[in-house]
Amino acid sequence: MSFIIAIDGPAAAGKGTLSRRIAETYGFHHLDTGLTYRATAKALLDAGLPLDDEEVAATMAHEVDLAGLDRSVLAQHHIGEAASKIAVMPLVRRALVEAQRLFSSREPGTVLDGRDIGTVVCPQAQVKLYVTASPDVRARRRHDEIIANGGSANYAAIFEDVKKRDERDMGRADSPLKPADDAHLLDTSEMSIEAAFQAAKILIDAVLNPN
Ligand code: DC
User: Fold this and answer.
1) Domain 1-28+108-211: which CATH number of 3.40.50.300, 3.40.190.10, 3.40.50.1000, 3.40.50.620
2) Does ligand 1 come within 6 angstroms of the Cβ of 9?
3) 174 CA → ligand 1 middle, Å
């Protein structure tokens, strides 16, 4: 049986970096499930199709190829916005969750990060982490990341965006963002990613090597 690490949390909490680091350390396969919602949204945008037709969006969701997810393209801001809109649709979620579950069974283990991994996609995961940080810290990190990559960014606009995204992700009826009852909370507001990784490693090692 595959070992599953579920990592959930709001946008820009640092769960992507943390998940990649964990997957690398343990030699596990990693899936950023946000990219599956982003790929579906991009396919709709590219085809000039509406973002509010659930049947059409679900058809696109079934076509998503997990092997072809390109983070550098899908990271674009407008794609994230569109992804957050189609992520409220139950038929889209059903299609993507099925593909994510299939991925989660890969040997020897997997790390999946997203919003509903510990609650809906893999409730049987051996380790569940809920990674969060205050909206201010998350907006600051996103801002600094854009500047570091040579872009231009407006902190106030990013802060508003983070709050809007939280409302949509936490407020939707189907699979809202929330910690699983048995998730370990990791608040990274005053913690470096390195410190968060060390904290996560202690939790994972305790399950992998109980003695
Ligand atoms: O993590 P991200 O910014 O790449 O996610 C983009 C959108 O996809 C996010 O606003 C909500 C949605 N999403 C989701 O509903 N469930 C997941 N497991 C992952 C992402």
Assistant:
1) 3.40.50.300
2) no
3) 13
